[in-house]
């Protein structure tokens, strides 16, 4: 019999996004949401206890002094289903995390519950296809400060250098950004592995559908200055001066935007279920895509190959032990592990 807690858990199956505050580790966000969901599931009323038929010896009741006993059937609740015996209905709710953010950064963090964990795993380990490339772009808002440099480019770290920035103007900054964007666009064409002399390459470039094929470094598909007020600016790079990053915020992770992310006060079961229902169509689209099926098949085949290699290695070791006199004591068995070439994680835009 399906209980109310099980029905509630089935409604939590999917993907949703939360807004990770700055200065909070992503593990703390995940643990907080897991705790809230677990409390909500265990607060559901337990199922009604099952009744068992028991026969008890009772007096016949003919008179008060009668000593005759008879067997009388009665229905009594079984203690095997009592909450004090079985414990809580759920002991663990696994919440998967997509592309992570460090403690210094803030913004959209995609999470998954139930089958959504499998979707997140495939998205993190696979490269998107051309038709889904635009869907899984990521947007970041960077804030910086000119005039000083630190050992790890963070404004909270130790200052190792101070420079002037009076010569930096917004026009110069935008020219540098255009150069960097052009270099990344060239890298995008290079890693797309498309023949530039073909009509297909021209049409893909015109429609903005070029995407990296295989493993590639992070590529910026768009770069611009949103706000310029020296020494503070929204995005800063090399302009014969130094700069530090004072803030990093992810405003988009694929189809999940900042307006869809749940803030801390909405990390409840009801709000999460509503967010999962809102993106249920998107989750189904991801699971039905060729990318998801192809990567899942590659992972399964890779696991089978590794199992075969492990079994073969075990057999080789047994044979080597049986024929120890015929083999060299310094010989080793070298096993090559086959991994899919499309696996890997990258960040775009």
Task: Provide a brief overview of the structure.
InterPro entries: PsdUridine_synth_cat_dom_sf, PsdUridine_synth_N, Trub2. GO terms for molecular function: pseudouridine synthase activity; RNA binding. This protein is an alpha+beta fold.
| Classification by helices and strands | alpha+beta
Task: Compute the number of structural domains.
Answer: 2
Fraction of residues in β-strands: 15-25%
- Shape, please? elongated
Largest sheet: 8 strands, mixed
Radius of gyration: 31 Å
Range of helix content: 25-40%
Average residue-wise pLDDT: 72
Straight-line distance between termini: 48 Å
* pLDDT < 50 runs, ≥5 residues: 298-303, 313-349
- The total of beta strands comes to 12
> Helix-strand pattern, N to C?
HEHEEHEEHEEEHHEEEEHHH
Tally of DSSP helical segments: 9
Pfam family, one: TruB_N
Organism: Anabarilius grahami (Kanglang fish)
GO molecular function, one term: pseudouridine synthase activity
InterPro entries: PsdUridine_synth_cat_dom_sf (IPR020103), PsdUridine_synth_N (IPR002501), Trub2 (IPR039048)
């Amino acid at each position: 019999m399906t209980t109310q807690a099980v029905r509630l858990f089935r409604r939590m199956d999917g993907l949703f996004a939360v807004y990770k505050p700055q200065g909070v580790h992503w593990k703390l966000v995940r643990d907080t949401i897991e705790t809230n969901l677990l409390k909500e599931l265990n607060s559901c009323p337990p199922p009604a206890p099952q009744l068992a038929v028991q026969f008890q010896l009772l007096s016949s009741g003919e008179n008060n002094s009668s000593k005759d006993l008879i067997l009388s059937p009665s229905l009594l609740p079984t203690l095997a289903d009592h909450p004090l015996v079985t414990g809580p209905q759920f002991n663990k709710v696994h919440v998967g995390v997509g592309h992570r953010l460090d403690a210094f950064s803030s913004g959209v963090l995609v999470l998954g519950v139930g089958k959504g964990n499998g979707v997140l795993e495939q998205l993190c380990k696979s490269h998107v296809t051309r038709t889904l490339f635009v869907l899984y772009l990521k947007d970041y808002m960077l804030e910086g400060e000119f005039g000083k440099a630190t050992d790890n480019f963070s404004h909270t770290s130790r200052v190792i250098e101070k420079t002037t920035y009076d010569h930096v103007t917004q026009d110069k900054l935008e020219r540098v950004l255009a150069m960097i964007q052009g270099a990344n666009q060239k890298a995008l064409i290079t890693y797309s592995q498309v023949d530039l002399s073909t009509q297909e390459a021209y049409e893909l470039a015109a429609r903005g559908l070029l995407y990296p094929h295989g493993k590639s470094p992070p590529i910026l598909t768009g770069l611009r200055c949103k706000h310029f007020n020296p020494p503070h600016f929204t995005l800063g790079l090399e302009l014969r001066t130094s700069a530090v990053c004072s803030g990093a915020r992810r405003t988009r992770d694929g189809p999940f935007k900042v307006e869809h992310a749940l803030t801390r006060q909405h990390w409840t079961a009801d709000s999460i279920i509503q967010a999962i229902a809102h993106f249920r169509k998107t989750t189904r689209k991801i699971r039905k895509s060729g990318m998801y099926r192809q990567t899942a098949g590659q992972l399964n085949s890779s696991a089978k190959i590794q199992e075969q290699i492990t079994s073969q290695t075990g057999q080789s070791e047994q044979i080597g032990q049986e024929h120890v006199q015929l083999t060299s004591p310094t010989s080793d068995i070298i096993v090559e592990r086959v991994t899919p070439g499309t696996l890997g994680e990258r960040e775009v835009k």
